[in-house]
């Protein structure tokens, strides 16, 4: 019975618009319409969810490391999704692999020398977060310049550009999700994307959350958090499927930010209602919400932040003023200003008199680097 329940959850992923809700890596769309891709990604995510007790500690560690890593990625014009690569490589520790890779970025000794890092005796710059991140960015840029794809560059970080190029020539495809690679590299991008999903959209994997990936929709798009009944018969092994679909560029979505005030709930518990008082006019999913109106939705705690389903699906996301999804649990004790990030493609700005209808670019916070990481 449990086996069929899990399969049912996986099958739901293929039919829900929220997951066609554009899973991407570095702006390159993950082809979730292919059965073997969606099943493999969900399998990796499911395995990570078994260790949910470890995820809060990993997120706390990332909060220290990411402010150092992100500005360096930006300096080299490397997409910020690469900040998740060292989590897969080392769990953000100065680990030593059996083959000699070292540090958060798991750089091999020979590669370190080529990238200008000093590896001598007791002094190893692969363990210096800032220097190693600069070196990793130089390597990633070189891999991208050679392969012309961030996804392939990440795969090459794992197994080498030569191996990726050889497989491209032999198999006649530049699509990572179609290439037949060694087992480690074949799962590598999926692991990075799984970490990204669990970090950036944890609410999508909470069973009680209204628009999670396991929810089904009716013809009008309303959401019911009930897994679908699995179909009869066996599901085809994703390793045997070959679909010739090329890489797609992620379409850009305009984002609008609205302001609201969070109402207090000092004793908040999972599944309780979270209420906000609108300070702007907002229109999303064809619904107009006026200034001074109140909205409520169930909230769920993930690593001391509360993720709230306000009933707009993924088109409207409640954020704190720091621009991060969800609101700090402590803010529910005091109340305060919050933001609603809308990516609804049908927003009509001419109908609204918003006070804070600025674009997402103005909503991002600046990162500060630190030299305390060795």
From TrEMBL:
InterPro entries linked to this entry: Lysozyme-like_dom_sf, Transglycosylase_SLT_dom_1
Keywords: Signal
Domain Transglycosylase SLT: 82-178
UniProt keyword annotation of Lipid biosynthesis present: no
Cross-referenced SUPFAM superfamilies: Lysozyme-like
Signal peptide residue numbers: 1-20
Cited CDD domains: MltD-like (cd16894)
Transmembrane segments: none
Family: Belongs to the transglycosylase Slt family.
Record protein name field: Lytic transglycosylase domain-containing protein
């Amino acid at each position: 019975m449990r086996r069929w329940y899990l399969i049912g959850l996986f099958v739901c992923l293929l039919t829900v618009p929220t997951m066609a809700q554009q899973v991407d890596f570095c702006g390159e769309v993950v082809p979730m319409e292919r059965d073997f891709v969606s099943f493999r990604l969900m399998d990796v995510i499911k395995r990570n969810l078994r260790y949910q007790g470890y995820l809060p500690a990993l997120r706390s560690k990332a909060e220290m490391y990411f402010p150092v890593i992100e500005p360096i990625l930006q300096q080299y014009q490397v997409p910020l999704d690469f900040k998740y690569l060292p989590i897969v490589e080392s769990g953000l520790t100065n680990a030593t692999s059996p083959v000699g890779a070292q540090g958060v970025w798991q750089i091999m000794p020979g590669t370190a020398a080529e990238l200008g890092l000093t590896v001598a005796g007791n002094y190893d710059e692969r363990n210096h977060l800032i220097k190693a991140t600069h070196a990793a960015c130089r390597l990633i840029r070189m891999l991208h310049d050679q392969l012309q794809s961030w996804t392939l560059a990440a795969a090459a970080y794992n197994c080498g550009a030569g191996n990726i190029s050889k497989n491209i020539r032999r198999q006649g495809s530049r699509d990572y999700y179609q290439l037949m690679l060694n087992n480690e590299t074949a799962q590598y991008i999926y692991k990075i994307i799984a970490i990204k999903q669990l970090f950036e959209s944890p609410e999508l994997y909470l069973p009680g959350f209204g628009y999670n990936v396991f929810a089904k929709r009716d013809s009008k798009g309303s959401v019911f958090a009930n897994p679908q009944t699995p179909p009869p018969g066996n599901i085809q092994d994703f390793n045997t499927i070959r679909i010739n679909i090329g890489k797609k560029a992620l379409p850009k979505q305009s984002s609008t930010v609205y302001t609201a005030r969070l109402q207090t709930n000092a004793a908040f518990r999972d599944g309780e209602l979270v209420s906000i008082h609108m300070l702007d006019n907002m229109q999303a999913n064809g619904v107009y919400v006026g200034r001074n109106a109140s909205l409520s939705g169930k909230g769920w705690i993930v690593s001391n932040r509360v993720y709230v389903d306000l009933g707009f699906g993924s088109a409207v996301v409640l954020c704190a003023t720091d621009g991060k999804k969800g609101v700090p649990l402590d803010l529910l004790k005091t109340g305060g200003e919050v933001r609603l990030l809308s990516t609804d493609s049908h927003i009509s700005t001419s109908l609204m008199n918003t006070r804070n209808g600025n674009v997402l670019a103005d909503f991002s916070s600046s990162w500060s680097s630190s030299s305390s990481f060795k």
